[in-house]
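Notebook p. 47: complex prediction with S-adenosylmethionine.
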Amino acid sequence: MARFAKSRLAARLQMLVSERRLESGLYGEILDHLPLKDGDTVLDVGTGTGLMLKAIVERNPGVHLFGLDISQEAVKCAREQLTGLTVDLRQGDITSTNYENDFFDIVTCNASMSYWKRPLAAFDEIFRIMKPGGQALLFEPRANIDVDHAIERIKENMADKSIFRRWLAAALNRFGLTRGDKVGMKRYSVAELCELAARSRFNPFFKVDKIALQGIPIFARITLTKTLE
Ligand SMILES: C[S@@+](CC[C@H](N)C(=O)[O-])C[C@H]1O[C@@H](n2cnc3c(N)ncnc32)[C@H](O)[C@@H]1O
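Predicted complex, structure tokens below:
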């Protein structure tokens, strides 16, 4: 991962983006896809500033919350955001964690996989730490998308916001979707994601769908299932 991405400035910028995601209902929409129930242990990988964890516990107060991020600065931000909540936050790389085998019911991840240096090792680690019967649901912007259309939808979604906020969101998203490789981001096609999952320990129990979130049709939903023996 690029050094900048682990910096305090990157964590602060991430906070602006995450606050917008929370405000817009994006995390709530992702939550609609997660089959959470009381007592579940849930891990948010690449949790960043932790606002997704906040959204999870607000809707599902009976779950046990865990968050992992490779950036110490992001973990610090998440700790501030989640003060007063019972949550296990750790700094670490998803390719090699210190969670027990067969531990999580649900693993989720939003917009982090694009930064993983070793995605296959990460999938295999998620397999190890997930309970048999558990599911991982990863949401990522994918490759081969119509960027102009996506930016138009983002601006429409922010029609009630100031011109400056619309401009900033459009600029940040356009940069991420067209030049994200400059900050260590790789966007995968559906075929590449399927190939990756097929090489992982999840094979053949995976599915990759193209989905829209917030009406923006640029995402891949990667569902990885660890079957009961
Ligand atoms: C674009 S941010 C997304 C944060 C959050 N999921 C959200 O929705 O706002 C990507 C996050 O993934 C983290 N990350 C990148 N590579 C990682 C890895 N190998 N293991 C764990 N976290 C990682 C970064 O530090 C960063 O906080």
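Notes: The longest helix spans residues 8-24. The chain is about 40% helix and 25% strand.
Next step: compare against the earlier run before touching the bench.
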